[in-house]
Amino acid sequence: MKRLVHRLGWPGTIALAIILLFVLVAILAPWIAPYPTQGAGAPNVAAKLSQPSANYWLGTDHLGRDILSRIIYGTRISLTNGVLIVAFSLLIGLPVGLAAGYFGGWVDEALMRGTDVFLAFPALLLAVLMAAALGPGFLNSIIAVAVTWWPWYARLARAEVLVLRGQPYVEAARLAGVSHQRIIIRHILPATGRPLTVQAALDVGPALLTAAALSFLGLGVLPPTADWGQMVDAGRKFFPARWWYSAMPGMTIFIIALAFSVLGDALRERKGGPARDAA
Amino acid sequence: MTVPPMLDVEDLVIRYPARGLFAARPKPAVNGASFRLAKGETLGIVGESGSGKTSLLRAILRLLPVESGAVRLEGQDWLALKGQALRRARQKIGVVSQNPFLSLSPRLTIADILAEPMLAQGDRQGAAMRKKIAGLLADCGLPADFLDRRARELSGGQAQRVAIARALALEPGLLILDEPTSALDVSVQAQILNLLADLKESRGLSMLFVTHNLKVVAHISDTLLVMRHGDVIEFGRTEEVLRAPAEAYTRELLSFGRNAAMA
User: Fold this and answer.
1) Calpha distance B184→B187 (Å, rounded)
2) Which candidate, A11, B3, B140, B193, has a CA 20 to 30 Å from the CA of B131?
3) What is the pLDDT of residues A237-265, one digit of tens each?
4) What's the CATH superfamily of A2-268?
5) Which residues of chain B have a CB within 8 Å of the CB of A176?
6) Which fold would CATH assign to domain B7-262?
7) Interface contact A279, partner B, CB < 8 A
8) Where along chain A do its domains lie?
9) Range 249-278 of A in CB contact (< 8 A) with B
């Protein structure tokens, strides 16, 4: 614990704790939500739009569902969104970047100019267009964001490989007649893995933020599944008189996005540990 | 002579591409190098940094493209090999580079490092390979319990011995050494040079020894090649080059060697 605080600093440690707390909440949602059935979507019209109170800590929505329970259930959607977006992006970006960096020459040119095409579009606009074309839904919104996301991993992986490719031990493997495929799997991939996974873990935050933006625009998961972005959108009609409806999920998004960003800064400036293996 | 030389280099020209479309063509890094390395002999290539010796070496290793000239390995056209064929043929040349801590993977154990070339050439993992790896370690003067260690746990001399063992894993006829002792301290240098001399004897190796230290190479090589500014300025039997250096530059290198010896 002391070592963690030393390496990440207090803000980083707190941010990490908040993120882990959200993960825990997502896993335990049915057991810790005050009204699990409402969290899952069952209406409770008698108590609609009630203020935050002892019964409903964060108030209720227009169908009387407890907002706290909805937010807790929404954590599941948001985190899976973030993780899956990053995973899909890695799945495309990593091989592209590895191939471009390792083989160089025209392979590099072709692949990187291809990724440039995707980078040339404003990311959110492209995501919205993709989501609109694919139609709303959980998986579609993930694909839509991943399409705008993978070029960054391709570029990152390529940069790492360019450094590694010139390492004498990689050259030694080549000179011993080791095949490209084997060199990439045995030497390049393990060394690229670490910086890339750190980056990917941090990107879960911005990724779920983008996913929340899509669902705010009505392009994410469909009701009655609870989702933060969609809750903020639904609450707009009752704002500012019933402010808690939009504000509570909005605050949640704000907290988790901030936590990821603070943790990212802390990891970039961390002390007492090399960012990667020496040489 | 009926037996082709181990390595026969003829009029090799290496030129790096011009930077930019209208830039002048740069001077060649190696300007028409020609030499032969007979089987079982050691050729020392000497030159200061920037003399083109590294470019020459990288071209022979097929890491750099060649502008013109020929390289024949045991009579075979070495520059014509491509792809899979080149990959297979690489087992004929073992390579040891300057810094063993950079040339040995930080992630693999010594056993994995030594197995890699054999696996690459299609050998199967198993008792036979383990035995061969143990033999390699012993030949290079290392105890068998090094197998599970990683390079960073070894001393510079030990790590360089591992690198030499790896270079010999596929039983190459030619060993190419790129400044193999310059990252080591003096007493260890001598041990490594002795080891190389022993291995050359017991395995009938031909060696190409590149260094900027004329003293080291005079000790171990049969023939000597001196490079400067991309040109081969001297090539002959070591004793002759040392006794009667034809070029002022070689004399200069030699006198540096003497001063260093006296110091």
Assistant:
1) 8
2) B193
3) 888 888 888 899 999 999 999 999 898 88
4) MetI-like (1.10.3720.10)
5) 90-91, 95, 116-117, 120, 166, 169-170
6) Rossmann fold (3.40.50)
7) yes
8) 2-268
9) 277-278
